[in-house]
Design goal:
Shape: globular
Radius of gyration: 16 Å
Helix content: over 70%
Oligomer: single chain
Number of strands: 2
Largest sheet: 2 strands, antiparallel
Number of domains: 1
Strand order of the largest sheet: 1-2
Length: 159
């Protein structure tokens, strides 16, 4: 059953990620449009629009968040699999990552919604969407709030 739910979540998400990365409107991908739209809110969290977009698109499996971020930064239409940590470091630094960015990515990784398969399992076990929605909303709200707080404190002492 769990495997079936994983396929039900991952397959459509994979298609959406591919479409977002590969459909261009005026030489700009839909992924970039979404990231640019989310960028002001993401900046309040000490992130950028691509990072926040990657977390959203990573709903089916949290493991794909970093590959989506790298794919977005590199501008490729497919997920990236870099084994060289120094190459990953260079890509992140070239795209404006700072210590604050890294801290907030770690915070939001720990405090955000569970994967889609887990949410479907919660829905099934609890007998409705109420608990699945709460399982999504509570940690996500905590993650957003803590990232915003961290960014505000950082800006008080660093700027």
């Amino acid at each position: 059953m769990y495997f079936g739910r994983a396929i039900a979540v991952a397959a459509p998400a994979g298609i959406i990620i591919w479409l977002f990365a590969n459909i261009q409107i005026g030489n700009i991908s839909i992924l970039t449009y979404v990231a640019n739209f989310l960028n002001p809110f993401a900046n309040l969290m000490g992130l950028d629009g691509y990072i926040l977009t990657a977390f959203i698109l990573g709903l089916p499996a949290n493991e794909i968040v970093l590959p989506i971020i790298l794919m977005s930064y590199i501008g490729q239409g497919t997920l990236v699999d870099l084994e060289e940590t120094s190459a990953i470091k260079q890509i992140l630094l070239q795209n404006g990552w700072t210590l604050l960015t890294g801290i907030n990515v770690m915070i939001f990784t720990l405090l955000h919604f569970p994967c889609g398969t887990t949410l479907l399992t919660i829905k099934k076990e609890a007998g409705g969407w109420k608990w699945a929605v709460l399982a999504f909303a509570i940690p996500t709200a905590c993650g957003i709030a803590l990232c915003m707080l961290t960014t505000a404190i950082w800006n008080l002492f660093i700027i």
